[in-house]
């Protein structure tokens, strides 16, 4: 990111429009695709076993009215004490 604008500043045979068209757009799209390839599987494996119904059952055990704001602790430990 530093050397190409510096070359343009010192008179290299490259315009700002050509730099944006050939370099920045390609790197922008490549970063989006690369992030999706890394992020989507990571989110899937992280949240793959998440079930909202378990959280609702946990809320019912804690009690409280439906309108009251509350903090819900989701216990992933399935042991019965």
UniProtKB/TrEMBL annotation:
It comes from the Eukaryota. One of its GO terms (cellular component) is membrane. This is Uncharacterized protein. It is found in: Membrane. The chain crosses the membrane at residues 27-47. Keywords: Membrane, Transmembrane, Transmembrane helix. It is a multi-pass membrane protein. InterPro entries: Aquaporin-like (IPR023271). It comes from Meripilus lineatus. The keyword Transmembrane applies.
